[in-house]
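Backbones bend. To wit:
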Amino acid sequence: MTTYKQIFIEESRKKGIDPEHRRKINHSLLQSDIAFQKGIPQFSHLQSAKKAANHIKRTAIENLDTYLLRFEKHFTQNGGKVIWAATAQEALDAVDRICKEVNARLVVKSKSMVTEEIHLNPFLSSKGIEVVETDLGEYIQQLAGEPPYHLVAPSMHKSKEEVADLFHEKLGASKGLAPEALTQFARKILREKYVQADIGITGVNFLLADIGGVALTENEGNGRLSTSFPKVHIAVTGIEKILPSVRDLGLFWPLLATHGSGQQITVYNSIFTGPRKTGEKDGPEKMYVILLDNGRTRLLADPKARESLYCIRCGACLNVCPVFRNIGGHTYNSTYGGPIGSVITPHLKGMQQYAHLSQASSLCGACTEVCPVGIPIHELLLYNRQLSAKNATRLEKLGWRIWANACSNRSLMNMNGGKIKNKVIRILFSGAWGANRDLPKFASQSFNQLWRKQRQ
């Protein structure tokens, strides 16, 4: 049976030597970097802002039970309902029950990575419910039958020509439409869906414990439309999204905007504290928040790994990662790609199956440097490697023991010049490294030998 590791290695090889793929992704990431540099000056001292955000998230995660219960209390008092889901299936079952209660036939969704995590769209489709993504990038990916490519920019790997062809094939749009025309075409279709939908489903950027609030930030207005017209609003979120207070948004919204898209603040920022109240003109009649665990308490139980729960899903670490820049998002074969995905996925989905993701890093530290909440991502990647090493097979352990002993033996390393070393490298790495690159060549004399000769 093909393993996730084998799939990853094969896809990495293909993407790493695909010049067109690399051209498109590096063009997109360059635009992200330019925007990010323009957004930074809004912070008089960015490092202080990061330290403050890290402190707030540490407080929230270290007292997660307290803040989640506080959120539930206030949200329930405002007429909303909280559903606790230990697993993805429990979350899916909860959505299914709500859909049956209102006999839902059409669901509109705003961008949500956690619903990608639980594979909500195919689940609802299997129940005969039409699901429409309303974020333009997500809508493009849905039409293409692909998962999101990036945490923030789901379709960043597609050129405008590819999107135009997709709209022509799937929606009957005229050939060769420009980006502005494509946007208008999608807007017309989606606006009809908003008013027809029975349920609106969103993700959550932040949960606000002190007011029982759900904070949602976006740039297209699709989140507001998905929650204004349908009679039912379901917000699905991981339990780690909690913040102690609504006052924390003054720091976290700008940090998220700058690191996610280079903006000082995103265009639409909403706080929902429950269903529509008396006198309000729009909004849902019922509102539910599904709090998903799905492996997060395993991270919480690990004093070292729990720092990864501070993540606010800005995607900045993906933008600067040299590995992501070469192999792209789909190669990871997981909901969360890039450095932070490589940290959390082995804990959420199983270290044995996904330990290889933590090896997919140069450990350059760029991810840690750019993280807006100060997560030591490269250190956590090393930590994952340590955990996976404990589960290595006997053959792997024997191989690395032989390698370590050989590299530690000066006489052996000096033996026969570089011939033996070059031969070993060819045997071990000609496939993994040498297929598309020149293998390193060892000199006939080692530095140790040259030093002795110089001393003499």
Summary: The chain has a mean pLDDT of 94. The beta strands are 81-85, 106-109, 130-133, 199-202, 206-208, 213-218, 232-238, 242-243, 268-272, 286-292. Residues 19-39 form the longest helix (21 residues). DSSP finds 23 helices and ten strands in the chain.
